[in-house]
Design a protein that fits this description.
Blueprint: H1 16-19, E1 21-22, E2 27-28, H2 33-43, E3 47-51, E4 57-62, H3 63-71, E5 93-94, H4 99-109, E6 113-118, E7 121-127, H5 128-134, H6 137-148
Parallel strand pairs: 2-3, 5-6
Antiparallel strand pairs: 1-7, 3-4, 6-7
Helix pairs in contact: 4-6
C-alpha cells in the first residue's frame, strides 16, 4: 500500500509504528491449522497473519476461524492448511502511516487487528486495544462504532 498524500504525518503525529506491538509472528500458508492454534496459545494471541511462499501476507487466521471453519465443520486441523482459510488480500498498514489512516483502515475493512508492514515484511501488529490505549477517546469511539455496526 503506497502512502496517500493526505495522510503524510506532521511532526509529532503518532504513526502505526507508535501504536503497534512489535515482533508479531506469522503462520505459513502451507502449515497446518493445528500448528497455528498451538502457536496462538503459546503467544497468547487470537490471530496470526498468514504468510505466502513469497513472504508476503495473504490473509489473517483467527481463533474464531479455526473453531467455525475447521472444528465445527468437522475438518481435521492437522490436515487443513492455514492458507486454505485465507480469503482475499491481507489488509495491512505501512509502519510510517499516521494513526488517522490506521483508524480509517480498520474501520473501512472492519478489522480488529491490523498487521504493520515495512516494505512487505511484517514488523508488528495493531489491535483494537492498542488503539484504545494510545489515542483520544473520540477517535477510539469512532472506531468501536464502525467495527460494531453492520
Amino acid at each position: 500500500m503506497s502512502p496517500n498524500p493526505r495522510y503524510l504525518s506532521k511532526p509529532g503525529t503518532k504513526t502505526a509504528r507508535d501504536l503497534m506491538t512489535p515482533g508479531a509472528e506469522c503462520i505459513g500458508e502451507h502449515e497446518p491449522v493445528l500448528r497455528a492454534a498451538r502457536k496462538m496459545a503459546e503467544l497468547d494471541v487470537g490471530a496470526l497473519p498468514i504468510r505466502g511462499a513469497d513472504d508476503r501476507l495473504t490473509g489473517m487466521l483467527t481463533d474464531r476461524d479455526i473453531v467455525t471453519k475447521v472444528i465445527a465443520a468437522g475438518k481435521d486441523p492437522a490436515g487443513t492448511l492455514a492458507g486454505d482459510l485465507a480469503q482475499g488480500e491481507a489488509v495491512t498498514i505501512s509502519a510510517d502511516d499516521p494513526a488517522d489512516q490506521v483508524l480509517e483502515t480498520m474501520a473501512a475493512h472492519k478489522v480488529r487487528r491490523l498487521p504493520v508492514i515495512e516494505g512487505h515484511r511484517l514488523i508488528g501488529m495493531i489491535a483494537q486495544a492498542d488503539v484504545a490505549r494510545a489515542l483520544p477517546a473520540p477517535q477510539v469511539g469512532h472506531l468501536l462504532h464502525a467495527l460494531s455496526s453492520h
